[in-house]
Write a structure and sequence with these properties.
Layout lengths: L14 H5 L20 H21 L3 E6 L2 E6 H41 L3
Antiparallel strand pairs: 1-2
Length: 121
Amino acid sequence: MTDRDDVVGDDLVDEAAAEEPETLEPTEAEPTRYDPAPAIPWRIGLFLLLAVLVVIFSVQNTQDVALRFLGWSWELPLVIVILGSVVVSVLLDEILGGIIKRRRRQRYLEREELKRLRGGS
């Protein structure tokens, strides 16, 4: 019998492991990257909320309106005008946002390449 007879099953501690503290080997620092994944859930919620508000607003405004542009004139339901404006706005936002994002990414890559060529400082 040992001094530890009152300890049962999983509660036993490996004495060899307890005597030697675990040492952590230094690792190479990994470059940090911006990860947009955590931001997705609130964006989806905000998108759904805005979509519902636009649909409610559109359905409540169904009267016809006169549109005039460069000499042309149309009679359209206001719901078509509202939804069309939303669609055009989203498309322009995505197109312009993509252009800006691509330019930023290109500048970032150019700076990283320049750092690499200068000696990694």
